[in-house]
Write a structure and sequence with these properties.
α11 (268-278) packs antiparallel against α14. This protein has a 4-stranded antiparallel beta sheet with strand order 1-2-3-4. It contains 15 helices and 4 strands. Helix content is 68%, strand content 8%. The chain is an alpha+beta fold. The radius of gyration is 35 Å and the shape is elongated.
Amino acid sequence: MMDALPKRAQALALLLAAVLAGCASVEREQAIEVARDWSQRVDAQAPQLRADTAAGDALRERLLADPLSENAALQLALAQSPALQALLAEGWRAQAAAAQRGAPPNPFFLFERVVTGGEVDISRFLGIGLTELLTWPWRSDIAAGEVQALRLQLAREVLAHNAEVRAAWVRAVAAQQLVVYHRQVQDAAAASAELARRMQAVGNFSRLQRAREQAFLAEATTQLARAMAQATVEREALVRKLGLDAADAERLQLPERLPDLPAAARAGNEVAQRAMDERLDLLLARAQVGAAQRAMGLETVQLFDIELAAVRELGPGGERGRGFEAGIVLPLLDPGIALRQASSAKLLAAQRRFEQARIDAGSVLRERYVLYRSALDLARYQRDEVVPLKRTITDEMLLKYNGMLVGVFELLADARAQVGAVIAAIEAQRDFWLADAALNAAIVGAPSQATPLANAGATAAEPKGH
């Protein structure tokens, strides 16, 4: 048997092993710390990685008791969504795996027992990979850079999730609001069609005139059915983002209307400056360049794999021997040229990705800001010009109807036109809030799809009539 180590040396070895083991660990809260900070800074709310899914039951019950606002929807998703919890857990796993790659090497122990002619030789080897030990600080630094990059990547994904929740809420509320006005159009068309049927029955309306009114009703009914189906689609998309089951989905209440438009637009120079200071995609690309630079040359060093071991031998006569054994891999057949080329290529790719990220950052921000301003201008135009103009026309038509200058069909057609203008205003308002969410994502560099302007230039979503 090997001689026992002194107690002080044993304690020192155990302490060193514990310290080195702790260097390669990533605690749960550490893994989501950067994501929490960014989410708190951008959305004033932070995610939590919960081991117990029942922990958020009280919060869910409280939030679902009232119509769900946009901020409440985000709060619920951050606490409830299984997809977000899986995203956080996967980020934790990736960081732990990266940290493990920077862990110190474990020692190895070999036991050898050889019987020769009835004589027994026993050898014991306690060694360590010397190359791995000497390069451990290098590998630990590389792993720390990879962990930091993964934390930034997780923060981007969390912010993208937040933007998607906000967009889903806007679409769901707008779709629900649109159903109300499409139903008003359908009611007006139904009244007109019924009146046409009665007038034809007494001989005061032609078959062609009645058919036109029936066609208006058919088109309005079709649009109402489509609006109701779209409202269901958008509501269920929000349910999935929130992570609600069937029972909670039934309890989900949404506000009756979208928030009002802001009083003033954001200044372009302020948006641009904030984006250049805070974009996560640039921070991530820069971190990846740093990780590639730190990794340069490590592959070549590891080709010279050296192992060193202490040896204790017990001969057949009970004699004891001690010494050491060293082994080295000679990189003769594989000198590591391909590894060095791969490392250089990795660094070059990271540098070019950073350059492209800077180009994309400016371009996407300009695009999103133009969409934001255009959507705001269109929404204001619909609200301040088109809807009041249609209302004025309706008031004048009502005066003429009271004075028997126009008929009831003209009055009903004008009512449909006014409601159609309100529908277009709601769609423009929806497009603005979607563009606002896309701009927020662009400012911080979170991945998000640009929102095209829907129905740009349209004055109303209504059955065409007289």
